[in-house]
Write a structure and sequence with these properties.
168 residues; Rossmann fold; 5-stranded mixed β-sheet; two-stranded antiparallel ribbon; 6 helices
Length: 168
């Protein structure tokens, strides 16, 4: 069975630090502490099978190009948030439909989105149950420091799949 690790994007981006920086590979764009730590975990334990989930662009492969800064969140009510339909359409184009199991590093919202996009796949969020983002970062730090990946419990949640609409 093959496993894909999905990491979150983040509000803090390379252009916040270097405003004149041009188009950038996705793996270098998100520089906030949580996004950086999730990326470090993914690179360590899933070096060839991870991607970033962006509320604007959808699934970004690590070497995919982000043209410029943006500020879109899955919590936004704007029309700039990528739809579930567009996310699903990206799966075969980006080679992400071949994975049997999906690990989501992120909050509850990211997990729910992935359950809708991958309704027949096993989904695991090893950070669920964390009280806050600092606790998530602590868990990631411990796994990275000890070089021991999280234990995963993959669930298929066919009954929890919501309508395929834009995530707000």
């Amino acid at each position: 069975m093959s496993t894909l690790c999905i990491v979150p994007c983040g509000r803090k981006k390379i252009w916040d630090k270097f405003p004149n920086h041009g188009p950038t590979e996705a793996k270098f764009v998100y520089i906030g502490p949580f996004a950086s730590k999730c990326k470090e975990y993914a690179e360590m334990f899933f070096p060839s099978s991870w991607c970033i989930l962006s509320a604007k662009y959808g699934f970004l492969l690590p070497d995919g190009i982000v043209p410029k800064s943006y500020n879109v969140s899955f919590n936004d009510k704007s029309g700039d948030v990528i739809s579930l339909e567009k996310l699903s359409d990206q799966l075969p184009r980006k080679g992400l439909d071949v994975y049997d199991r999906i690990i989501v590093l992120g909050g509850r919202n990211y997990t729910e989105i992935m359950r809708q996009v991958f309704p027949t796949k096993g989904i695991s969020n090893p950070l669920s149950g964390s009280k806050n983002i600092m606790q998530m970062i602590g868990k990631l730090n411990k796994a990275i420091k000890n070089k021991i990946p999280f234990q995963y419990r993959f669930e298929k949640n066919h009954n929890k799949v919501k309508n395929r609409r834009t995530v707000k």
